[in-house]
Amino acid sequence: MAKVAVIEDDVPTSNQLRGWIESARADIEVHQWFTRDDAEAALARETYDVVVLDIELGRERHAGVAIINAINKQRGTPVLVVSAMPATIYRGIMKALDAWDYLQKTTFEEADFIDTFLEILRAARDRGPSGQEVAAPRGDELSLDPLRQGSPLWRGQRVNLPLTAQRILAALHQRRGEVVSYDELYQVVKSGRNRDNIRKHVSTIRDAFREIDPGFDGIENVPMRGFRWALKRS
Q1: Residue range 1-22: mean pLDDT, rounded
Q2: Sign of the CA dihedral 190, 109, 220, 234?
Q3: Which has the higher per-residue pLDDT, 6 or 163?
Q4: Where in the chain is the domain with CATH 3.40.50.2300?
Q5: Which residues carry this modification: 4-aspartylphosphate (predicted)?
Q6: Could you give the CA distance from residue 8 to residue 36 in angstroms, rounded to a whole number?
Q7: Is 110 left (phi over 0), alpha (psi -120 to 50) or beta?
Q8: 98-156 confidence digits (pLDDT tens)
Q9: Is 168's pLDDT higher than 70?
């Protein structure tokens, strides 16, 4: 069972986040902490798969920053920051602190949160004991026809994807093994050039692959940067 910490001083918001997490997966145990002291004590004794936290806790404007620093010194647990602080300012700060992602309150829906959270949880589960990514054992078995823009084939089976998702998949596959940044992915979409929209398209791609291959894990989230086609050539 996965174990998640929600560190948020506003009780209704904390309960909402807990409800969203529990609705996303039945096998998740959620611990709620409302103060910096209680959160740091819990992080010292518990091993969490993911931590969801706010930056402001009570009167401490940057308590979340101190908690992230403490996490990085201990186990390097993946952190999803959910804060009212402006994303234009704080996303870069969180990136420098090695937070995995940043969502600004009031600017995202439940589905956006769940997609982001599950993406981080899957990536966390794929990491080895030292925090390094585990190399994918399978070779690259994707077939694309960029001239016809037909549906891609995965292990000989058709992957049902809309055209925009096909373009994103092609961009990732063309640069396989490399990080394709959000800014680069913006160039292959006609509209919705923002991170949330790109994440939705990537989620659509993953879901389509998992319909025919439940164990598919070929697209890796690179926190705060973009995505990478992680499977090696066969």
Answers
A1: 96
A2: negative
A3: 6
A4: 2-126
A5: 54
A6: 9
A7: alpha
A8: 788 888 898 888 988 998 898 788 777 765 444 544 444 344 578 875 444 456 889 88
A9: yes
Give the residue range(s) of CATH 1.10.10.10 domains in the chain: 139-233
In 3D, which of 32, 20, 28, 26 has the Cα closest to residue 113?
Answer: 20
CATH number belonging to domain 139-233: 1.10.10.10
Contacts of 97 (CB under 8 A, 6+ apart): 65, 68, 69, 72
Alpha carbon 221 to chain centroid, angstroms: 6
177: tokens are 């093994």
SS3 per-residue string spanning 208-226: HHHHHCCCCCCEEEECCCE
- Helix, strand, coil distribution of the chain in percent, nearest 5: 40, 20, 35
Per-residue pLDDT reduced to its tens digit, 19-71:
999 999 889 999 999 999 999 999 999 999 999 999 999 989 899 999 999 99
Q: Which CATH number applies to 2-126?
A: 3.40.50.2300
